[in-house]
Amino acid sequence: MSALEQTFVTEPAWPIKTWQSLQRKVGWLGLLATGIVAIAAVPLLFVLYSSSQLSLDGWQSLWSERLPELLWNTLSLAVLVAIGSFALGVSSAWLIARRQFAGRCLAIWLMVLPLTIPTYVFAHIYTIMFEDDGWIGSIWLAVFGNTVAIPDLYSIGGVTFILSIAGFSYVFLLVSSALEHSNPSLEEAARIQGLSPLQVFWHVNLPLLRPAIAAGLALVVLHVLSDFGAVSMLRYQTFTLSIYLQMEGRFDYQGAAGLSLVLVFLSLAFLVMERYSRRRQRYYATGTQQRRVSRRRATTTELGMIWTWLGLITLFAFLLPLAWMLEWSWQAWQDDVLDATFWGYVSNSLLVAAGAATIAIIAAFPVAFFHTRKRSTLSTSYIQLSSIGFVLPGPVIALGILSFILVVLAPLYGGMTALLMALVIRFLPLALQSQEASLQHLTPSIEQAGRILGAGPLENLRRVVLPMISNGMIVAWVLVFIDALKELPATLILRPTGFDTLPVRIWIEASEESLELAAPAALMLVVGTLPALWLMMRNNRQSGSSE
Asked: Rounded CA gap, 374 and 349, in Å?
């Protein structure tokens, strides 16, 4: 055999060599995470390619005409909504996790149920309520008359109000879960040293809650940056709305991609700064003794204060929108407009949301586990790239997926694959943030003990890691299911012919002011998420009782 023939026989082809080199460097877990991140980055590749077609004059035009205003509007809104969600989410989580009071289980449900209402439904309902003849507008005029103007929702204050009551539940869920599993010994030690309850919260609890708070606020901010429904309803110019107008109004796909690229850099800068600020901090307990946190029974005065605060949040975040939906749904029932076609929309929505949620938590786990156990620049970059889908507007994600399908998977064009891919990429950060927050509280010595006792990597994963983070995985599934159930822009573009969902029907009927048709669809979004929320609540109770 000649030397050339030996070379071809003994030397693997360059793709195989590259794959083997990568496998030796990051392991099979890293390879799996690499493949998932590559798929998640498809919309970003579309944005990079399309924005590269934008001329220098086009970039100068965007900077001089649009970018300064959009940067100010978007950043201001993100900061204000983060503050509002922090105040509502952390305060409600602390009261419920640290006090035992009548109706506590009901309070947990009431703090989570706002997640079931899309932002565009919130915006549509409250714009009607704040009109002169609306529920809130009528009460306002009766109390203040014409001396004080009715608050204007078509402003940054109105959009902040809508997005805060729609998004604070993300912070509540993650912070309350962290509080339930926190170590009471640290708080007791601080109290013994003479710290007041407020000082204990500020110097002990708040730093330990940082992963959960950061994960919750990251979800809130990413929602704000990519929100389309509320800002379009309230006509507040952010990057997302401007990108949509560039695409739909001007058919300027290069300009839309240019704005999307700026939005991506803005979002990644936020994520990088947040993670850099806590890069060397650890939040798990190193002791072997773990005790369950005991809740102190609330006094009569505390009970009144707790329910006053939680009641106000519930009133605006859930009860008023629910009452509006029930009133108009009853009208639709009386008019006999809820036919078999309507229930088809319901089943379509549930099918797509459940499929997207299941795929998302499976795809997110290797990325979160790789970053938690092999923390490096590479793993951190994977986390950032996996968040791309959440910072890009739905229409841009849809077009990116559509381009990918046409080039690589043309036989799948027009089917459910494109829609599921878009939803998984869109909400992968939800699954990723929740699972990573749970993994950060998993003490590495527990995994090491399993390996010492002879468990292989897969057995250790199945019998040790997954059971201990099951609560976070269920939370992740529920969060993705709820958001996928409400997703509008990507569904509008990628749904198969004749395949309508509840959000699509809400958007169409609300645009035509058909309240008796939009309200039942919105109400069914709430009803459809109740089983998923019940699953999460039951898991939380079982997790708490087992400790």
From this structure: 37
- Helix, strand, coil share of the chain (percent; to 5): 80, 0, 20
User: Pick the residue with more confidence: 212 or 513?
Assistant: 212
Look up residue 512 and give its DSSP letter: T
Dihedral sign (CA 274, 276, 277, 278)? positive
pLDDT tens readout for residues 110-154: 998 898 888 888 998 898 899 888 889 899 988 888 888 888 899
Measured CA to CA, the distance from residue 169 to residue 90 in angstroms comes to 10
Specify whether the CB–CB gap between 330 and 134 falls below 8 A: no
Q: How would you write 307-332 as a 3-class SS string?
A: HHHHHHHHHHHHHHHHHHHHHHHHHH
Nearest residue to 106 (alpha-carbon basis) of 88, 121, 92: 92
In angstroms, the Cα distances linking 344 to 330, 340, 481, 493, 512 are 19, 6, 18, 19, 21
Q: Do residues 222 and 392 lie in contact, with contact meaning Cβ atoms separated by under 8 Å?
A: no
- Triad 95, 101, 105: Cα angle to 5°: 80
- Strand partners of residue 198: none
CATH numeric code, 44-278+296-545: 1.10.3720.10
> Cβ atoms within 10 A of the Cβ of 385, count?
17
C-alpha to C-alpha distance for 111 and 113, rounded to whole angstroms = 6
Distance, CA of 353 to CA of 360 (rounded, Å) = 10
User: Where exactly are the structural domains of the chain?
Assistant: 44-278+296-545
pLDDT 10s digits, 356-400? 999 999 998 888 888 777 777 777 788 878 877 777 777 778 878
Q: How far is Cα 12 from Cα 32, in angstroms, rounded to an integer?
A: 22
